[in-house]
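Handover notes (outgoing to incoming on-call)

Open items:
1. Transcriptional regulator: sequence verified, structure written out, both below. Nothing else pending on this one.
2. Nothing else urgent.
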Amino acid sequence: MNQALGSVQSFEQFVLLSVVELSADGETPTHSYDVTETAKARMDVLDRPPFGGIERQEVISALGNLAEAGLLAKAETEDAVGKGRPAYELAVEAGDVIESLEDDEDVGPYARSL
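Transcriptional regulator structure tokens:
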């Protein structure tokens, strides 16, 4: 898993930690909207300037990259009008993600806060 985490950018690691947080709250599989809102709410935890803001399209891209790296699994869920929406859940242990990232200079403060 460390190799997979090392293959993704800091922003993607931050998004992954947002999914870890949602997972701990029992809110997975989760949609990009919820991940975006969680990430925005946690920006102040970082010791570095934000990633230039968090836009939903960037989060969607990050979620796709994390799924490709094997860190997230895709699930299909239906929204209120019955349309299928991609949702994501952890494909790795939350504790392993936190442990692997808690010493990271960019996202470590967020990992330690979980």
